[in-house]
Fold this sequence. Notes:
Chain A has one domain (about 10-150): Arc Repressor Mutant, subunit A. Helices cover about 65% and strands about 10% of the residues of chain A. The first copy, chain A, has helices spanning about 10-35, 40-50, 60-65, 70-85, 105-125, 130-150; strands at about 55-60, 85-90, 100-105.
Amino acid sequence: MTTTRRFPTREELRIWRDFIETGEAVRSAMAARLQRDGLSSGDYTVLLALSEAPGRRLRSSELAATVGWERSRLSHHLGRMEKRGLIRREECLTDNRGAEAVLAPAGLEIFQQVNRPHLRDIREIFVDALTPAQLEATGEIMAALREHLARE
Amino acid sequence: MTTTRRFPTREELRIWRDFIETGEAVRSAMAARLQRDGLSSGDYTVLLALSEAPGRRLRSSELAATVGWERSRLSHHLGRMEKRGLIRREECLTDNRGAEAVLAPAGLEIFQQVNRPHLRDIREIFVDALTPAQLEATGEIMAALREHLARE
DNA sequence: CGGGCATAATTGACACGTCAATCAGCTTGG
DNA sequence: CCAAGCTGATTGACGTGTCAATTATGCCCG
């Protein structure tokens, strides 16, 4: 009876824009809080991954896979973090092409300072804004979007 | 009875990360499609606003308000779009400080070419991925997040 | 063995976004 | 009227992200 609509309705469009804009607003609010401790979201992502890695070190490519970044993005970011003394780079013993990123003392210290406040911020900005049912629905919606994306 | 939890649970954290990462994935998928026509998301946003404005022109500050951007972001973006011939800048007659952004013929043409495919992409990437109930829930969740953010 | 291909990582060029500083023109209170 | 301050817009510096090219090494097959 009803054929597949070609274009979104006004309401669907509104929700789409809400989705995009709210995501940006939430990320930017979180970035602002992290910034108070001098970290960007990317910094936190890297520090978290390294702090959880055995020996607090990871091959560049493993780190990239862990955080889901492209190599070159990681390379640029590590360069900036190294300049600030948050990480070090070392050569890889088992593969001369390889590089390892090592959590530096300054990086560990700031991560430990920032981690609990950051988790609290996630609760304040995100978890507390939603009912348990909405939170669950969010999980399902994100899963549906990702699965749909993957089917292309 | 139950005091406010200090930190998110594992599950809440998972949903938080899903929310952030899915948002990034969806935006990036959309950006890739627009890119096939040589436009960034920002370009589309500006072209849409201008194409709907009376005379296809807007004062810079009004354009900034319409799309919700900071002035300086808009200024940089308009500079790039002007270089590509998508818009022109003209002086404002009523306020010598002012500048107007005017949709250039090339900008109008590409916008008209891109608009319908873009709307179709929104349906394919976003609307089609969700059930009607999920779509409605998304609207409510985004509203809740924004309202919560505004309360700070 | 060694030429050719794959892989690890970096680099450079460029688009994008934010922040702080700047500049010009409007506006207003004494 | 005019100095002080406000507003519109741009700019420069810098962090960030992507893409394509590059460099160096490992690996495999003939």
